Amino acid sequence: MRALFNLPAPAKINWFLHVTGKRPDGYHTLQTVFQFIDWCDTLDLIRRDDGLIHRIGADELPQDDLCVRAARLLQQATQCESGVDIHLRKCIPQQAGLGGGSSDAATVLIGLNRLWRLDLPRAKLMQLALQLGADVPIFIYGRNAWAEGVGEQLQPIDLPTSSFAVVHPARGLSTRAVFSTLDLTTKKPEETIAGFAEWLGEFFAPDGRQKNRHQKSQSKNCQQDDQRSSLCPVWGRNDLQPGAEALEPEVTQALQILHTALMGPLAAHSPTLRSELLFDARMTGSGSAVFALIGASDRSGLPSRHGPSDEVLGGLPDLLPEGWQGRLCKGLREHPLRDWIDA
Ligand SMILES: C[C@@](CO)(OP(=O)(O)O)[C@H](O)COP(=O)(O)OP(=O)(O)OC[C@H]1O[C@@H](n2ccc(N)nc2=O)[C@H](O)[C@@H]1O
Ligand SMILES: Nc1ncnc2c1ncn2[C@@H]1O[C@H](COP(=O)(O)OP(=O)(O)O)[C@@H](O)[C@H]1O
Known about the structure:
With 343 residues, this protein is α+β, with helices and mostly antiparallel strands. The protein has two domains: 3-157, Ribosomal Protein S5, domain 2, CATH 3.30.230; 162-330, GHMP kinase, C-terminal domain (Alpha-Beta Plaits). Helix content is 31%, strand content 26%. It has 13 helices and 13 strands. The longest helix is centred in the N-terminal third of the chain and has 16 residues, at 100-115. The radius of gyration is 20 Å and the shape is globular. Residues 298-310 have low confidence and may be disordered. Residues 14, 17, 26-28, 30, 32, 97, 99, 102, 133-136, 150-151, 175-176, 179, 285-286 line the site of 4-diphosphocytidyl-2-C-methyl-D-erythritol 2-phosphate.
């Protein structure tokens, strides 16, 4: 095999993010739920016989970006003599908390495992992935998951059929800078996957569809803000959000714009959106992107094509300041390349 074309590298959303402590090496321990979404970068991998590793495209990134580092790490770990040209087409905003760089690195590991005929098992690829970043193993794991440790201790979780309205402000945020704002002096109790599953069960039937309007309005967690729709908070919190808002006022602005849009213009103009279960805006990961979860009333109720949906998102892009991005993303059940790794 000489080349692999159009490999997807999907973004992720953190439904919530609880920081539970700090390790001696400076990394923080977390509890979070990761979900893949259909906002994707795309990569081509073309094998080279001279052993060199080059990235082409995404010129704004450092030459030694996560794709190149992933390829080099795999080459060293396996003593592989092949090289690769990596064509990277960036679409996921950077420094967004959407895990774009981590996902690119994971797609390189998965793709080269096939292109270079290495056949490493999932556990080995995840071990290499963790050396590249705390967020990389989830993209190798390939299933939506409850995560602990620094994000590498993963348990699969079935999430409902959902979409996410995602807003990315003009400016991004450094993950390291956001973590450094944390004050861990007051310890909050740790949560359980069962607690999260119980909350999900309030809104969603076991097949992932949202419960009917009557059942929703009974929920103690859902407040009726006006005649049209109700906005519920997603379970838990994002402990990184206050620090991110302090560092970057555009995060606060993005949360407000998305909240207002859901309560007003978007819901008013979209019959589809009006019938959906809406959750209020929250930041993903270390920001600066924010999202609102939208529960689908049925599996065909949302647009299937990639990219913004004119019908559902309506005027969202028009409500955003210049340089911002707004997009309706579908939640994915699993990573598109999950089956590329055997065990
Ligand atoms: C916060 C999360 C939540 O999913 O996502 P993003 O916002 O980056 O997408 C991740 O934990 C980010 O993972 P990742 O982006 O791979 O972080 P890394 O490159 O490993 O770490 C960058 C820096 O962030 C800090 N860091 C990162 C992860 C973690 N659990 N504790 C930390 O303290 C450290 O200062 C580290 O040097
Ligand atoms: N392939 C890549 N795509 C995006 N960012 C990359 C990549 N390789 C290295 N980086 C660096 O990682 C940083 C953050 O990565 P990114 O995944 O965009 O953000 P986040 O971790 O907040 O989701 C960027 O500042 C960028 O310089």
